[in-house]
Structures are given as C-alpha cells and as structure tokens.
Amino acid sequence: MLFSGRTPAFLSLSLSIASALGALYTDPSQLPKKKYDFIVVGSGAGGGVIGSRLSESPSANVLIIEAGLNVEGAVATEVPFLGPNLIGTPFDWNFTTTAQPGLGGRSIAYSRGFALGGSTSVNFMVYTRGSKDDYNRWAQVTGDWGWSWDALQPYFHKMEKLVASADNLSQAGKLCPEVHGKSGPLPVSLPGYSLVTDDLVIGATADLPHQFPFNEDMNSGNTIGIGWVQYTIGGGQRASSFTSYIQPALNRPNFDVLINTQVSKVYQTGTQKGLPIFRGVQFSQSANGPVFNLNATREVILSAGAVKTPQILLLSGIGSPSELKKHGIKTIVDNAHVGTNLQDHPLLSSAYTVNSTATFDAIGQNPALVGDLLNQWETSKTGEFVLGPANQLGWLRLPGNAEIFKTQHDPSAGSTSGHYELIFTDGFVSFAVPSPSTGNYFSLFTNVVSPSSRGSITLSSTSVFDSPNIDPGLLNSPFDIFTMREAIKAGKQFMTAKAFKGFILEPFGEFADAKTDAEIEAYARKFSTTVWHPTSSASMTSWSSTNGVLNPDLTVKCTVGLRVVDASAFPYVPAAHPQTAVYVLAERAADIIKGKHGY
Ligand SMILES: Cc1cc2nc3c(=O)[nH]c(=O)nc-3n(C[C@H](O)[C@H](O)[C@H](O)COP(=O)(O)OP(=O)(O)OC[C@H]3O[C@@H](n4cnc5c(N)ncnc54)[C@H](O)[C@@H]3O)c2cc1C
Ligand SMILES: *[C@@H]1O[C@H](CO)[C@@H](O)[C@H](O)[C@H]1NC(C)=O
Ligand SMILES: *[C@@H]1O[C@H](CO)[C@@H](O)[C@H](O)[C@H]1NC(C)=O
Ligand SMILES: *[C@@H]1O[C@H](CO)[C@@H](O)[C@H](O)[C@H]1NC(C)=O
Ligand SMILES: *[C@@H]1O[C@H](CO)[C@@H](O)[C@H](O)[C@H]1NC(C)=O
Questions:
Q1: What CA–CA distance (Å, rounded) separates 191 from 280?
Q2: Pairing of strands 275-277, 280-284
Q3: Of 49, 317, 439, 574, which is the most exposed, with the fewest CB atoms less than 10 Å away?
Q4: Is 198 in the pocket of ligand 3 (CB under 6 A)?
C-alpha cells in the first residue's frame, strides 16, 4: 500500500446510500413486483457488462443483485492513485487464504471488491488484454473458435474507447492506436503524469534490448517486452464496470439494480428433458435477515467472481457429492470440478534505495502534500493522483533452454505469453511489509503469470455469509518457484542497465541478502503475496468434455437456465491482468445470450 500504516483522514469514505437514480434499490422489499427475464448475480467486470448489454433490448427485464456497497460519492474509488488504499476498507470483502505451503505456511489477505462495479471499483486499473496465445488456447480447449484472439477482436473494439491521458501528451511511440477501439464505453489511456523514472525504464530497454525488448503496445497480441502501461482511466478518473456500463444504463425502465444484498443460492424450478432448471434465486441482506425468492423467466447468470461463484454453485447442490454431503447439502448436479482449477498470479515486490527526493514516497511521508494533490485532482484532474501504481511494466519469458523445462512442461499458452511480469514503481510499495517512514525507493515487482500450480475454493459452512476456504496455491509448484526466482534475477539484471546509473543505489531490506538461488527462493516464499487475479474456479471446457463446469457458451453443464459470466469461467488465467479478459468474455457472452433468446 502506498500509505501503508497510515490512513489520511480524507480516506474516511463517504458512503452514500440510495441515490437519485430510480432503478437502484437498497432493500429487496422495495423491488417492483415485475417478472425479470434475467437475474444477474454480481456487478463486477462480468455482471456489469451482462446487465448493461442485455438491458439494451427494451423488452428484456434485467435485475442485478449485488452484495456490496454503492460507490457514488466515495472519492477513493474515483482517484486513480488511491486505488491501493481501498484494501481493507468497507469496499473490500477482506478474504483471507488458507495457509499457503508455497508461502512458508502463511495465510494472506485476499481482497475482492465489495462494491457496485465489483473488483473493478477497487482494482489498480491496469488494462492488459493478454496474448494471442492465451485466447487461442481458450478456443482450443473449448473447441469454440469464438474465444480465439481473432474472433474476439470485434468485442475488444466494441468495449474500448482510447482517450487522451490526463496531461494530453502525445501517444506516439507509447501505444498503437490502430489496435484499439475508439467508441466503446470503457475509457483506456496512458499514464497522465510524467515521472523521472519514465526515461530510465524506457532507456534501460534500449540499453539491454536483447533480454528486455521495448514493446510499443503489449495489447496488440504479442505481450513480450517492456512498455507503457494502459489504464482503465478517462479524464484522470477511474473507470469501472459501474461507471462505464451500469451507471449510464440505470435510466432504462427495464434495468434494476439491488445492492447490499447477497444471493445465497440458486434453486431448481423444474426439469427439462431430465435436466434440472435453475431459474430461482434466493437472497437476503444478512445471515439472519428475511429471505427472498425470485424466479427469472429466462436465465440466472452468476457473475459473483472466482471466489463467490463456485461457493454459490456448491451451496446450490452443484458440485462433488462427497464434498456436499459433508455439509448436509443434497447433490442436484454431480460435478466434481466446481471450485477446482483455481489459478492466481503470485506477486513479489522488492525495493531499491534511490538517489532522488522526488519519488512517490514523499506523498506517504507528508500528509500536507496529500491534501494539495487531492485538491489539484479535484480542481483540474491533473498531477500525481491521476496515476495508477506504475507507468511501465513488461512480460518476459524464461529462455527456451531453462533447466526447469528438463523436468516440467511449459505451462504458458505460447510464445506471445510471458512466464513472468516485471512492474516498475517510483516509490516503496509492498503488500507484505509496512512502508519505511523515511527514504526514497524504487520498487521492482516480479509476478509469475503463467503458473502451473492449481488451487481450490471449498465450502467452510452452509452460509453464503461465511467466506469459503480459499486456496490459491501460490508458489506451490516447482515451475512457479523456479520462475519467481529467475524473474528476480532478471529484474536485478535489468536494474544494472546504464540508464539507471546514478539513480538506483542498492537493494533494500532483506532483498539485499537474497543472493544465492536458495536465498532468493526463501526470500520469495517469505514475502510473496497475490496480484489478486483468481480465475478458473468454474471453468469452461468443450461440449463433450465432462472435465469442467461450463460449456463453451458458459451454461453450467447438465443444467437449464443457468450460466456463469465472470473470471471463474476462464479455462486458464491469461498472462495478463485479467479485468480486460473478463470484460471481453462478458461482451461476447451478452451476444450469445441475446442470440439464444432472440433479442
Ligand atoms: C486489489 C485488486 C487489484 C486489482 N488490479 C487489477 C488491475 O490493475 N488490472 C486488472 O486487469 N485486474 C485487476 N484486478 C482483478 C480484476 O479486478 C478482476 O479480475 C475482475 O474484476 C474480475 O471480474 P469478475 O466479474 O469475475 O468479479 P468481480 O469484479 O470481483 O465482481 C464480482 C461481484 O459479485 C459480487 N458478489 C459476490 N458474491 C455475491 C453474492 N453472493 N450475491 C451478490 N453479489 C455477490 C461482489 O460483491 C462483486 O461485486 C484487481 C483486483 C483486486 C482485488
Ligand atoms: C473489511 O474490513 C474493514 C476494516 O476493518 C471494515 O470496515 C469493512 O466493513 C470490512 N468489509 C466487509 C465487507 O465486511
Ligand atoms: C487536455 O485536453 C482537454 C480537452 O481538450 C482539456 O479539457 C484539458 O484541460 C487538457 N488538460 C491539460 C492538462 O492540458
Ligand atoms: C419459482 O418457481 C417455482 C417452480 O415453478 C415455484 O414453486 C415458486 O413458487 C416460484 N417462486 C416465486 C418466488 O415465484
Ligand atoms: C546522485 O545524483 C547526483 C546528480 O543528480 C550525482 O551528482 C551523484 O553522483 C549521485 N550520487 C550517487 C551516489 O550516485
């Protein structure tokens, strides 16, 4: 966290209650007595797109039920720079993982957005599509070419609106405009404030072009190399599935959103050709509060995210009979894969001391500066507060002859996908240790982005108000720890580039002592956390495969009327920050659903 250990007073978030918008409800008993064609569970990247796109058709009545809070008026959800400060606030589910063997037995905090807009209202806004190979692998394992990179291009273009950065600097050489959409609902822009470190990082790619090539646009299909970060930021302000999809649609008479309400399960409303129909939704506002039931006339769409969607499926009797039996839940659909195959990206940040007084550290160390920057942001949407956590990052591959490939299969999707990611931040950022109260730093993030480890979501109780057991399996395979170690070595190598001379001083803290391979691995296990990228806990496979939870059209196997549209559906986590992949999956899903019902 940028201000770890301190929470400036302005962060006391103003939680507005029901707004003037007629279709936003905060109490289930206020819902109009109408028939909903579609009931969508969750308003994040998946649910926001689905609710908004389906309600484009005036004859489709759509309801989103969202567990979390309204974000309107909460300035910390609007100011890009304050994204990291939302961790551990009322907008966070505050999950915790099970003890992670790969992390030396530690349990770690596992943030998810408890908000209108889901995790897109609290995330760090990095906009990366993933690679051509990532999507082509989805297409291959599902047998549906519609999930391929080429087939999804119209959807990437439909959702994006490439806009100027907050400082209006030229985009030339920093991205390729032709690969981007220009008129979609989701603004995408380059960092809107220049940093001293910009020239150093880009300069280092010129110094070491063979190992660390510059990539002009990592969203063009080939992610490999280091370049400028693109963000879901427009006009210096966060864009989320709420601001881009839900809010602009709330004036539609056929679109309602109910917040502060948790769906506890979906229930069977009939049988069709021997298969259970799941069009019933049960929900309430607290563990002991009144319980409400509502049936959709066409479909229920689960978009509760990779942690809660499998929990809801399990609570609904869709899962492994032996697991369900432990909790006294009757199995309606026998599917042992619900909650398995969970994937995530391990994150590690390491800091260097620097020869500068102009890093982000000043902001955390000087409360007066925070007030000034917030004021500047509010009056002109300029200054450091328009920034996300880094202006440059990159995706890199292990060498083809790396020793690990003698014993381990390469889990990456192909040559356009990285094995690891490097992120460069002009200040001290750690999610494992508090920020030092003095000094100036440069943070190097090393993230494993094509992991071979798999985790799981399992029930801890029969109540949706309890967290399920979350085991992301971080650094829990020989490949993943090897890759983390080599990423750290590569990162150290990058920092030796001529461009950094006179700026980078020395490794800070325990990072300085991590020298041998064994020491680096021990350091990684001690301090790694998560990039908050859980996916694939209810994954799609081909129509004929029984080795998965969803069909390629995202319907739940062996059911009628029930679909999943969120990060749980991914067969594999892309080697990328995944919000873009969820948005694009949901854009295509909306078309599939409209097509099915003739809208
Ligand atoms: C701190 C953080 C930083 C991140 N940074 C980035 C980044 O920079 N770039 C990037 O690409 N990705 C980032 N991500 C990940 C990205 O935001 C997610 O991958 C994406 O939002 C997932 O979309 P989703 O629809 O699957 O789930 P979510 O967006 O999490 O939406 C799920 C929604 O369902 C709701 N819900 C859950 N259970 C219930 C229930 N029982 N009843 C009703 N509603 C329910 C939740 O409250 C939530 O609103 C970050 C995530 C976090 C937490
Ligand atoms: C998360 O923790 C914060 C800080 O303790 C708390 O204010 C907030 O209500 C918690 N979130 C939820 C969903 O309970
Ligand atoms: C950038 O351009 C927009 C639109 O022309 C303008 O409103 C804004 O003030 C400009 N910002 C800066 C920092 O020049
Ligand atoms: C939902 O459908 C089932 C089965 O048709 C019916 O028994 C139940 O009453 C319906 N519930 C509501 C709230 O309409
Ligand atoms: C720090 O930077 C100044 C110039 O900005 C330079 O003169 C000095 O040598 C640098 N110090 C170190 C230790 O590199």
A1: 45
A2: unpaired
A3: 439
A4: no
Which residue among 210, 345, 533, 597 is the active-site one?
533
Residue 88 CB less than 6 A away from ligand 2: yes
The neighbouring-strand residues paired with 4 are none
Treating both helix axes as pointing N-terminal to C-terminal, what angle do 517-527 and 478-494 enclose, rounded to 10 degrees?
Answer: 100
> Which numeric CATH code is attached to 1-599?
3.30.560.10
Q: How far does the centroid of ligand 4 lie from the alpha carbon of residue 451, in Å?
A: 44
Of 302, 303, 310, the residue nearest 342 (C-alpha): 310
Dihedral sign of CA atoms 153, 156, 161, 167 in order: negative
Question: Does residue 168 line the site of ligand 3, with CB under 6 A?
Answer: yes
Nearest residue (CA) to ligand 1, atom 20: 579
Residue in the structure block whose two tokens are 């660390």? 212
CA 55 to centroid of ligand 4, rounded, Å: 23
Q: Rounded CA gap, 532 and 67, in Å? A: 19
For the segment 485-503, what is each residue's pLDDT rounded down to a tens digit? 999 999 999 999 999 999 9
Starting from the CA of residue 113, give the closest ligand: 1
Pocket test of ligand 4: the residue of 266, 295, 560 to mutate, having most ligand atoms within 8 Å of its CB, is 295
CB 560 within 8 A of CB 277: yes
Report DSSP letters for 143-157, one per residue: T-GGGSHHHHHHHHH
- What's the predicted TM-score (pTM) here? 0.97
CB neighbours of 500 closer than 8 A, spacing ≥ 6?
200, 204
Identify which of 47, 172, 146 has the alpha carbon closest to the alpha carbon of residue 563: 47
Q: How many angstroms does the Cα of residue 90 sit away from the middle of ligand 2?
A: 4
* CB distance 293 to ligand 4 below 6 Å: yes
Decide if 127 contacts 579 (C-beta within 8 A): yes
Residue holding tokens 């509502």?
Answer: 294
Q: Is 533 a catalytic residue?
A: yes
Segment 203-242, tens digit of pLDDT: 999 999 999 999 999 999 999 999 999 999 999 999 999 9
For ligand 4, whether the C-beta of 297 sits within 6 Å is no
